[in-house]
Amino acid sequence: LAKTTQPISMDSYEGQEVNITCSHNNIATNDYITWYQQFPSQGPRFIIQGYKTKVTNEVASLFIPADRKSSTLSLPRVSLSDTAVYYCLVGDIAMDSSYKLIFGSGTRLLVRP
Amino acid sequence: GAVVSQHPSRVICKSGTSVKIECRSLDFQATTMFWYRQFPKKSLMLMATSNEGSKATYEQGVEKDKFLINHASLTLSTLTVTSAHPEDSSFYICSAYAGTSGRGSTQYFGPGTRLTVL
User: Fold this and answer.
1) Which of A93, A108, A110 should one mutate to test binding to chain B, selecting the residue with the greatest count of B CBs within 10 A?
2) What is the pLDDT of residues A60-95, one digit of tens each?
């Protein structure tokens, strides 16, 4: 299972774009990159998933370079309610192994007024 | 879509009692469910992988006799904390997965269960 490395914490202000980068040097060919958001005392919430290049949905964009050894979650125009912990995970199911996610320490994002 | 529920959301029990936590996938069938625990200000720690109709696979260091997992159907998995003690107090979170081998897929998480053992 590929290990991920993220900044422990980040600060931002309302209305700014926030980019959180995750390193996953040992990512395997079949691995996908998934980001989750977690608020205190709640389960993680799926944000976005991608394999390569760029993926965009209604809440975020995910940029993945060609070598896939890192990825960047981009949150446009953050608000106070985006204050949370963000987890980057890599993994995929294979025919002969179970699909499981190993959470790293995550990035604590604090959005200030 | 892809909603996972947990029940109860919080439970307080006396030391020595057993507590059962239910995890349900409400709008999809989950071939695999996972159980995590999380201590305050810490990351999620995977406890076990539960496949419908078979025995759960526990992560290293997790006592299978302490944390009994049953995955009786494609929409329900239960975690029973047996003979609970104060050190078992934690936030327990389940996730459900329904995907096809070889493709990117997603785990959907429940809202968590706060267990407090007195």
Assistant:
1) A93
2) 999 999 999 999 999 999 999 999 999 999 886 543
